[in-house]
Write a structure and sequence with these properties.
This protein is α+β, with helices and mostly antiparallel strands. It folds into three domains: 18-29 and 191-511, Glycosidases (TIM Barrel, Alpha-Beta Barrel); 59-188, Jelly Rolls; 517-611, Jelly Rolls, CATH 2.60.120. It has ten helices and 37 strands. Bound molecules: alpha-L-arabinofuranose (AHR). Residues 23, 219-221, 345-346, 378, 403, 432, 466-467, 477 line the site of alpha-L-arabinofuranose (AHR). Keywords: Hydrolase, Signal.
């Protein structure tokens, strides 16, 4: 067939179509992109985060009676627990093996150790070493002298003499000492783009390699599953808790069943977006938790609306503004160029829809150029879904967030989902989607679905696969785009589809005409006696001029098909390893929202190939 491209007519711009969505589930941040190596560095783990936790989770001890959790003399009000260490005639040892039952440390690389300490009696010396499980020394012991009477940070760099993946940090306390300890950290000196408190280099490189146009953050349900009190352990995600010195960020219950240090906070996120060339797309809680029907009273919604306005100022405001100055003081005087903001995640209920307009109106009034994203709840097609779209149309949201995780067949059957969407009004933000597995078939199906997104770029503004990361030791959601452990990164096959589309995303759709006959070749590893079939989801596809040619033999013309469902054409003969089928297709009318696809294949060994219309 000949493809004729007509560039004279300008169709839809593809804009920022393909991006990524980061949520800290599967330990994507702590134990993942955020490269702190010590698990429970500030002794803040608790049962609210996870029923198996306590304040010493992740730590082990020698001479354990020397160690207690204290609360009376905290490092600061946001970091309330610490370790109170009091030894008698014996020394005591504190150990941590990180998130993956062993620290992965590489020979020749630098790691920064730090802790906060406050001696209650005399000054003392701590001995810090890293050993592997066979008690071999990976880092020669170093001593730090603790003498200030106040809480003080002590830090030094260490370089392993050999590589290990089962390292354990050991801190030895001398006999007859009494000292308070908090925020024990081991952090690689090398981070992505060498940012302080930066992100893990190999994982961030995998993101950059995608060429995403935007990055949605920080969730997901993580944003809107929580209580309304900003100081509560299980509060909704509040961005103001995530900036500034890490020891002043309150640890938080992550609704995915673990502790979130917030070490990877909003400043680090904006910085990462800049470093990978993606536009930020934050998601704000709307003062509403659809999981537990918690609602901030409408007459007390200002606090929540201000959070949104202040975040915009934090990202874009001049250093002379209140929040622009906070950003500048953190080291980034230039703006982060925030363009998108989502209010709510995957929202259902009147509780959200009555709160959304407060955010919408206040943000529109102060920042009219910010593109606002409304929510249509989970899974396309439900009753709430329509209500989300109604709200978006009523208030003039720029985009509406749609989410779906479905079987591959759903994606095939819904190839044309967006053909029928209106060309005017809010665009779709496909904020979460995946076909349910990480097999190559899922990836191919997603690729074909993405063609439908591109074709409808006038209606679909943004789209991102979800979830992004999975630490293989902590999988609580599958499929995912990128798997990793402490040593390596293993992108899924779906990742490569995303990469392909992001790398080669065009700027606008063009008109084209396909003339001639499409031709397909199947190469098999064995001869077969098969049947070929065509299938359509709607009764408006004619398959004509079907010509089958086996190797060099004479072409054989097969019967025309008018499809009302699956139809098979029997060959009743052995076919060779390479054969060609050509056919013409005519597709007329039909219900565009219903979609349709054409499969073409043989059944003898259960394999099918398909073309998507
Ligand atoms: O991506 C995983 C979860 O799926 C998100 O947190 C939520 O928005 C959706 O239900």
């Amino acid at each position: 067939p000949k493809l004729k491209i007509d560039t004279s007519r300008h169709l839809a711009a593809l804009g920022d179509l393909y991006g990524i969505f980061f949520e800290d589930l599967n330990h994507a941040a702590d134990g993942g992109l955020y490269p702190e190596m010590i698990q429970n560095r500030s002794f803040e783990f608790c049962k609210v985060d996870n029923a198996t936790y306590n304040a010493t989770f992740g730590w082990s001890f020698e001479n354990s009676q020397a160690f207690h959790i204290g609360e009376d003399d905290p490092l600061n009000t946001k970091n309330r627990h610490y370790l109170d260490v009091k030894t008698n005639e014996d020394a005591a040892v504190l150990m941590n093996a990180g998130f993956n039952d062993g620290l992965f440390l590489e020979k020749g690389k630098q790691y920064r150790f730090s802790l906060f300490a406050k001696p209650l009696d005399n000054h003392l010396k701590l001995k810090i070493a890293i050993l592997n499980s066979k008690n071999k020394q990976i880092v020669a012991p170093q001593e730090i002298l603790i003498e200030s009477k106040q809480w003080l940070k002590y830090t030094f760099s260490m370089e392993p003499t050999s590589t290990t993946d089962d390292g354990m940090i050991k801190i030895e306390f001398p006999p007859h000492c009494h000292v308070l300890v908090d925020m024990v950290s081991l952090f690689p000196v090398e981070t992505f783009k060498q940012r302080a408190n930066g992100v893990r280099k190999d994982l961030a490189e995998a993101l950059k390699a995608l060429h995403p146009k935007f990055m949605r953050f920080p969730g997901g349900c993580l944003v809107h599953d929580g209580t309304l009190n900003i100081d509560a352990r299980d509060s909704l995600y509040r961005w103001k808790n995530t900036i500034g010195p890490v020891e002043q960020r309150p640890a938080r219950r992550n609704n995915w069943g673990y502790n979130q240090t917030l070490g990877l906070g909003f400043y680090e996120y904006f910085q990462l977006c800049e470093d990978i060339g993606a536009k930020p797309l934050p998601v704000m809680a709307a003062g509403y938790d659809p999981h537990h029907q918690r609602k901030a009273p409408l007459d007390h919604l200002d606090e929540w609306v201000d959070d949104a306005l202040d975040l915009i100022e934090f990202a874009n405001g001049a250093p002379t503004t209140k929040w622009g100055k906070v950003r500048a003081d953190l080291g980034h005087p230039k703006p982060f160029h925030l363009e998108y903001l989502a209010i709510g995640n995957e929202e259902v209920g009147e509780g959200f829809r009555e709160r959304y307009p407060y955010f919408h109106k206040a943000i529109r009034a102060k920042y009219p150029s910010i593109k606002l994203i409304n929510s249509s709840g989970p899974f396309a097609g439900g009753g709430e879904f329509e209500l989300g779209w109604e709200s978006a149309k009523k208030y003039g949201s720029d985009l509406v967030d749609e989410h779906y995780y479905e079987a591959p067949n759903w994606f095939l059957a819904n190839q044309h989902r967006y053909d029928a969407y209106p060309k005017k009004g809010p665009q779709v933000f496909l904020g979460e989607y995946a076909s349910k597995d990480n097999k190559w078939y899922n990836a191919v199906v997603e690729a074909s679905y993405m063609l439908g997104l591109e074709r409808n770029a006038d209606k679909v503004g943004l789209a991102c696969y979800a979830p992004l990361f999975c630490n293989v030791k902590y999988a609580n959601w599958k499929p995912d785009l990128i798997f990793f452990d402490e040593k390596q990164v293993t992108p899924s096959v779906n990742y490569y589809v995303q990469k392909l589309f992001m790398h080669y995303q065009g700027t606008e759709n063009v008109d084209y005409k396909l003339t001639g006959t499409p031709e397909a070749k199947m190469i098999d590893d064995k001869p077969l006696n098969g049947q070929f079939g065509f299938e359509a989801d709607q009764a408006d596809i004619a398959v004509t001029n079907i010509v089958y040619q086996d190797g060099n033999q004479q072409p054989q013309r097969l019967a025309d098909q008018h499809l009302t469902g699956r139809k098979r054409i029997s060959l009743n003969k052995m076919v060779s390893q390479s054969y060609t089928i050509s056919f013409d297709l005519t597709k007329t009318g039909g219900r565009p929202d219903k979609g349709g696809h054409l499969f073409f294949g043989h059944q003898s060994d259960g394999n099918e190939m398909m073309w998507i219309l």
